[in-house]
Specification:
This protein has 171 residues and is mostly beta strands. 12% of the residues lie in helices and 45% in strands. It is built from 2 helices and 8 strands. An 8-stranded antiparallel beta barrel has the order 1-2-3-4-5-6-7-8. It is elongated and about 95 Å long. It starts with a helix and ends in a 6-residue tail after the last strand. The mean pLDDT is 85.
Length: 171
C-alpha cells in the first residue's frame, strides 16, 4: 500500500510541476517617463570666480532619478550623501532635456539650492574609450555652503558642474 501512496504522491507532484502561473497584468515592463535624463554621472566641479575665471575644484558622482509619481516635470538630483550631502528636486523640461531649481530645499545637506543652465546633451560626451555617451552640465549655488570659507574661496561666484554618464563598464 505504501508503494501505491508513494507513486500517487509522485504523480501528483509531477503533474503540479507542469502548471504555470497566469499573467496578472497586461503591462509591459519599461523605463520611467524621464529615463533619458536619469542616470549616474561622473562629474567635475569647478569654482567660478566673479570675473568668470574657473578653477577645477573636485571630482564626484551625481545621480539623477525620477520622483515616485513618475511625473515629467521634476527629477531628483543627488550625490547620495557621498560628498556634499546634496539632494534636491529640479524642475525639468523633458523635451529640451534642461533643468533648473530656484530655492529648492536640499533635503540631505540643509539650506536651499539654485541651479541654472542645467542641461543633458544626448551623445555629446565621450568615455575614455572614445564611445559617445550623454553629458550633463549645470551651475549651482548653495544658501549655506561651508566650503568657500573653509578652502579660501570666500569671494567665489558659484560652481559649474559638468560630466558624462556612467556607462557601467570599467573605465
Amino acid at each position: 500500500m505504501k508503494k501505491y501512496i508513494s507513486m500517487m504522491a509522485m504523480a501528483l507532484m509531477l503533474s503540479m510541476s507542469f502548471t504555470a502561473c497566469s499573467v496578472e497584468t497586461d503591462e509591459k515592463p519599461g523605463g520611467t517617463n524621464i529615463q533619458d535624463m536619469c542616470g549616474n554621472w561622473d562629474v567635475t566641479w569647478y569654482v567660478v570666480w566673479p570675473d568668470g575665471e574657473e578653477e577645477e575644484w573636485t571630482d564626484g558622482t551625481i545621480f539623477t532619478f525620477n520622483k515616485a509619481d513618475n511625473g515629467t516635470t521634476q527629477m531628483w538630483v543627488s550625490d547620495q550623501d557621498t560628498y556634499l550631502g546634496l539632494q534636491f528636486l529640479a524642475n525639468i523640461d523633458y523635451a529640451a532635456k534642461t533643468f533648473t531649481a530656484a530655492e529648492s530645499e536640499n533635503v540631505e545637506g540643509g539650506g536651499t539650492v539654485n541651479v541654472t543652465n542645467g542641461k543633458i546633451l544626448p551623445g555629446a560626451g565621450k568615455n575614455i574609450h572614445g564611445v559617445a555617451c550623454d553629458s550633463i552640465s549645470f551651475e549651482i549655488t548653495f544658501s549655506d555652503d561651508p566650503y568657500p570659507a573653509k578652502y579660501g574661496y570666500a569671494d567665489f561666484s558659484h560652481y559649474r558642474v559638468e560630466g558624462k554618464k556612467y556607462s557601467g563598464f570599467t573605465e
